[in-house]
Amino acid sequence: MSAFAEIVGQDRAVGLLLRAIERPVHAYLFVGARGSGVEDAVKAWAAERVAPGDARVVDLARRQSHPDVIVFESSSSEMSVAEARELIREVHASPIETDHKVVIVLGADRMSEVTANVLLKTLEEPPARSTIVLVAERPDRLLPTVRSRCQRIDFSYLSNDAVRKSLLTLNDERASTEQIEQAVNLAGGRLDRARALIGPLAPVREAFIDAVVSLDGTGASAAVAADELDEVVSRAVAALEETQELEVAQLEREGQEAGYPERVVSSRRKTLVERHKREHRRSRTEIWLEGYTAIETWYRDVLVGSSALALVVDRKRSTVSLRSAAEAIDQCRRARQALTRHNASEILNLLRLLVRLGSLSAKG
Questions:
Q1: Parallel, antiparallel, or unpaired for β 130-136 and 27-31?
Q2: Greatest CA span in the chain, whole angstroms?
Q3: What pLDDT, on a 0 to 100 scale, did the predictor assign at position 364?
Q4: Distance (Å, whole) CA 2 – CA 16
Q5: For residue 137, what pLDDT is reported?
Q6: 199 CB-contact burial (10 Å; exposed 0-12 / middle 13-18 / buried 19+)
């Protein structure tokens, strides 16, 4: 099977990737929105670059577990100079298992001008045994001098047809055709979100909508719903933590089986644990936001009317007034901003939202 078999809707980009394997250069800039498949593609390409045709390496690279495919992502909103220097050291370090290594920089457009200038020389003249791949969603934020040193490969936004095709291919019959279609319509061209919507996010969305339906205008019903939703979010986070623990154990087992030196296993373990911390913080917030989004779509269906496509296909439309629906969506927006901008308490933010939505439901 081709390393790019699971990359959907990106035929032009895949064609360029195949040519880049045949005639590689020292640095690349992969440009694509989150969920377009660019991150899956860059890992698959890196695997083919270090070990062409080796399915084991492809699998390890996809899981960010191969010692010669290094995936680097800043731990903050802006890549620091210290992180850039750490990246340079990684580029100059020798490959562990193969004759070549690929260093992938996710969120490269988060580099400041100072940080970018630190990397310029390495981008222009990396060691012959290393390839650097910058991945960016907004390439215009990168310095022209950075962009000019890289061969660019663009990934387009995915169409609904491409997302649907991927979901139907990967679905193990747990999701119905109706659920898949709902995920396609909600995902906005993001394949990663579509997959989550028929997987771990499905019970979260259902619980948040059910909670709103249960509101009767009293504080008691809001408090009960808030406690139940807090438990739903905690279960989703616990499932992520369990998956992360399995990944750490698998990385150590595979390192021992491959005979990697302990320093290599230790380094990879440290990198994985740091990635897990970033994922944990980001995922918890995203789970809450997905819940708010579910509520928004519930009220959005009221605003667009019965003649328009419903985004919540497994519930009857709400019977609240258009004015109340618009106010409910505004309340969700405020709750979202409180969580992301002001670091509000998750449970208090939710309770406040549910009390207000309950009041709107009582008005009709």
A1: parallel
A2: 69
A3: 62
A4: 15
A5: 96
A6: middle
29, 151 Cβ separation under 8 angstroms: yes
pLDDT of residue 286: 92
- The amino acid present at 67, given as its one-letter code, is P
- At 11 the three-state DSSP class reads helix
pLDDT at 173: 57
Q: What is the C-alpha radius of gyration for the chain, rounded to an integer number of angstroms?
A: 23
- Residues 251 and 272: beta-carbon distance below 8 Å: yes
Q: CA 224, 225, 226, 230: dihedral to nearest 10 degrees?
A: 110
Q: Check residue 46 and report its DSSP letter.
A: H
Q: How many whole angstroms separate alpha carbon 358 and alpha carbon 38?
A: 42
Taken as a whole, the chain contains a residue count of: 364
Q: Map tokens 């989703």 to a residue.
A: 236
Quick one: the chain helix, strand, coil %, rounded to 5? Answer: 65, 10, 30
CA 130, 91, 103 angle in degrees (round to 5)?
70
User: Across the 364 residues of the chain, what is the mean pLDDT of every consecutive 10-residue run?
Assistant: 85 95 96 94 97 94 93 89 94 95 96 94 94 97 95 96 87 76 91 91 94 93 96 93 91 87 86 87 91 95 88 85 95 94 91 94 70
Q: Quick one: which of 165, 164, 200 has its CA closest to 182?
A: 164
Cβ(42)–Cβ(7) under 8 Å? no
